[in-house]
């Protein structure tokens, strides 16, 4: 039943996405395929290759190279915190490179490599002080929301939805509602200025 439900949701989302002509570009399709493959690969690596049915030291089930001690896939909220923790406590031998930390570093390296390969690399800055403040407030709200929702748009909205977790559906729709509300507020502010 879960497989049928997952397939139905996937096909519905694909039909919705490919309905828009603007999405049907090489970059968008490639990005979607790569993210999907990375999520599936993450579940496979952490849940199959990194799985020990019985750890020789503790005789308990263990998932290697994960911060949670469970199966993990693509996410960025907690892995960024673990990355900072690894940098801060680098001399602590109990801190090791995990799947989540590797995904954060891989995201930076991969996006840099792609921007250099496609000659689209550029430095960007803020328009003015108000733009800087908006980004700081937005970043703080996103960080707080990511921790509160136990994941971000990738962790809950992609990896979590791939497991058909009810909490991920709740977080996903809350993310969409928050984004829509923010766009309405920003549009209202823009219209008020003109």
Distance between the termini: 53 Å
Question: How many helix segments?
Answer: 7
Taken from the alpha-carbon principal axes, the silhouette is globular
Describe the main β-sheet briefly.
2 strands, antiparallel
Give average pLDDT, whole number. Answer: 89
Structural class: mainly alpha
State the low-pLDDT regions, or none: none
Total number of beta strands: 2
Question: Cα-atom Rg, whole angstroms?
Answer: 20 Å
Q: DSSP strand (E) fraction? A: under 5%
Order of helices and strands: HHEEHHHHH
Adjacency order of strands in the biggest sheet: 1-2
Helical content band: 55-70%
3D structure, described in words:
The structure is a single chain. The chain has 194 residues and is mostly helical. The chain has a domain at 127-194. Helices cover 66% and strands 2% of the residues. The chain is built from seven helices and two strands; from the N terminus they run H-H-E-E-H-H-H-H-H. Strands 1-2 form a two-stranded antiparallel ribbon. Helix 3 packs across helix 4 (99-117) and helix 6 runs antiparallel to helix 7. It is globular and about 70 Å long. The mean pLDDT is 89.
Salient structural properties:
globular; 7 helices; 2% strand; 194 residues; mainly alpha; two-stranded antiparallel ribbon
Compact summary:
This protein has 194 residues and is mainly α. It contains seven helices and two strands; from the N terminus they run ααββααααα.
List the helices and strands and how they pair.
Layout lengths: L1 H18 L6 H24 L1 E2 L9 E2 L13 H12 L10 H19 L11 H20 L6 H8 L3 H28 L1
Antiparallel strand pairs: 1-2
Helix pairs in contact: 3-4, 6-7
């Amino acid at each position: 039943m879960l497989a049928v439900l997952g397939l139905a949701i996937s096909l519905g989302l694909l039909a919705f996405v490919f309905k828009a002509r603007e999405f049907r570009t090489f970059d968008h399709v490639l990005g979607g395929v790569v993210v999907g493959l990375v999520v599936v690969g993450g579940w496979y690596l952490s849940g199959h290759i990194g799985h020990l049915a019985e750890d020789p030291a503790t005789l308990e089930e263990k998932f290697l190279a994960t911060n949670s001690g469970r199966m993990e896939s693509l996410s960025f909220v907690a892995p960024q915190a673990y990355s900072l923790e690894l940098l801060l406590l680098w001399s602590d031998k109990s801190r090791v490179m995990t799947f989540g930390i590797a995904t954060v570093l891989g995201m930076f390296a991969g996006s840099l490599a792609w921007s250099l390969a496609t000659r689209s690399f550029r430095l960007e800055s803020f328009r003015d002080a108000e733009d800087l403040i908006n980004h700081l407030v937005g970043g703080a709200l996103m960080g707080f929301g990511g921790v509160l929702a136990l994941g971000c748009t990738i962790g809950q909205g992609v990896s979590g939805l791939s497991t058909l977790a009810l909490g991920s559906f709740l977080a996903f729709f809350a993310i969409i509602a928050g984004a829509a509300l923010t766009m309405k507020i920003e549009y209202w502010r823009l219209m008020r200025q003109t």
